[in-house]
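SUBJECT: A protein chain and its fold
Encoding: whole-number codes for local backbone shapes
RECORD BEGINS BELOW THIS LINE
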Amino acid sequence: MKLSALQAFVAAIEEGSLRAASRRLGVSQPALTKLVQDLEIELEATLLLRHSQGVKPTAQGQVLFDHAIKVAYELETAVDQIQQLGGNMRGELTIAAVPVAMMLLIPEALRTFSRSFPDIRLRVSEELFVDQLQKLRNGQVDLVVGGIPEGLPSGEFVTEFLMQTRMVVVARRSSRYSQVRKLAELSTAPWVYTGNSKKAGYAARLFESHGLPPPPVGAVVNSTLSLLALVGSGDLLGLMPEQIVTHPLASHDIAKVPLEEPGLPLTVGTIIGKGSVVSPAIRQFIAHLQRAAHHLKRA
């Protein structure tokens, strides 16, 4: 299977037409069509369906496309790592970070890292809860900066400590729940769960840690902005790192609920795949994160 044929096939699907794919790759349309046809002959399967607006993958074509994307990513990563090992610090890093890291660690780390390595492209996305780990597993991100879950498989991931925080209960300042002292009194209140389902999130873990059943789900969100907006606009309750509650970017309408029970401890660190090759760029970025965490601790 030729790499050029895979590239032609991927371009055809991403562009939606053979003509656009040929322009993107700088080859003639007949040449690109032949590359795709050679793939179909080799695999003994129809990979593309033509329609009035262009082309789309068949079921078999979608399978090949999904794997071809991963192959392309792995090859690009290999090229970057080879250049970096030779002292040419170029390439791209994709980083997923939890909100507390995005607010407190990432800005300083990006500032110093970008100054030292201006030719490394950085892609940073905010991720809540453990969805990051799945992206790390399938190669969508190179590095996770987030809460280190209990029971994380040591044979699958490598972690490094950055900072300790605590998830605290927050409510709108004028909420009827804002002065509650006992967690049990909030067991029937609606909560904002963070993650992709009501089974995930820190709210359930907090209640379970105190021997209480999970509270009702008022909403499920997967972004800090949504969490802040929902908690700040009604009687919904939420959990967030205590540093975010007092951060200038947080809503002034939100306050920590003065519960007698302590919040949920959270260890923030870096997570990488154990079996993956750690590039010089990843090692350098982790070092800059550690420096940012040290400065934060001293502040």
Q: What stands out?
A: The first strand starts at residue 48 and ends at 51. The longest helix spans residues 59-85. The two ends are 56 Å apart (CA to CA).
